[in-house]
Amino acid sequence: MTLPLKQQPMQFTDTHAVDSAKAAEKQKAFEAQVFQLQQSYANLIGGIGEDLSRPGLLDTPIRAAKAFSFLTKGYGQTLEDVTNDAIFPSNNREMVMVKGIEFFSLCEHHLLPFMGHTHVAYLPEGKVLGLSKMARIVDMFARRLQIQENLTQEIAQAVMDATGARGAAVVMDAQHMCMMMRGVQKQDSSTRSVAMLGQFTTDHQARNEFLRALPPSKF
Ligand code: ZN
C-alpha cells in the first residue's frame, strides 16, 4: 500500500549562503530534492513488498531522504565554499601532513558505504591552507557517489588548486560494504589508494617521507 506523501518544511543549513535570495533559492531546491527522494524511497520500500503504513515505516521515506541528501551534500559545495578564504601566506616550504582524517562515502556502483581514513600531504609554495579545511575538502568529495580511486585523486587535485602547492599526495585506506555485505563477502580486506601530484611524482625523497610517516591501516 502506498500513502500520499506530504512535502515537509525543513531547514537547509548553509553557513556560506551570503545573500538571502541565494539562501532562499538553495532552500527551495533542497526541499524539492528531499521530496523527490522521499517518493523514491517510498517506491523502494513498497518494491520489496513492505507495508509503508506500519508504524515503524511511516516516516522512513522522509528520514531516509534526509539521510541520503546529507550523505551526498558534497554536490552542493565548491572548493571556494569549503576553503572559505582560509589560505594564508607562509615561507614554510617543508611538507605539511594531516593524517587519519576519517571519511564516509557511498560507492557509485552499489550505493553502499565505504569508509576509512585519509592522509594528506602537500609541499607549500608561499601559501598554506587552514588545517581543518583539509578535512572539509575530504568531506566535500566523500559526500558524493564515488569510487575510492577517483576520490583520492580529486582530493589531491583540490589541495593543489587551493594552495598552488608544488605537490600534493593523498593515501586512503578504506573498507567497502559492497565487498563485505554482498558479492565476495570478505570482511577483513581493506583497500589502499594513492594519488601523487606535482613534485611527489618526481621527488622520491618527499614521496618516501610521506609514505613512511603513515600509520598502518586500521583495518
Ligand atoms: Zn560498490
User: What is the radius of gyration?
Assistant: 20 Å
Total number of strands = 7
CATH architecture of the largest domain: 2-Layer Sandwich
CATH class of the largest domain: Alpha Beta
Spatial order of strands in the largest sheet: 5-2-3-6-7
Give the termini distance in whole angstroms.
43 Å
Summing up helix and strand content along with how strands pair, one would put the structural category as alpha+beta
Number of structurally distinct domains: 2
How large is the count of helical segments?
7
How helix-rich are the residues, as a percent range? 25-40%
Order of helices and strands: HHHEEEEHEHEHEH
Mean pLDDT: 93
Spans of 5+ residues with little confidence (pLDDT < 50)? none
Cofactors and ligands present? zinc ion
Beta-strand content bin: 15-25%
Shape: flat
Tell me the CATH topology of the largest domain: GTP Cyclohydrolase I, domain 2
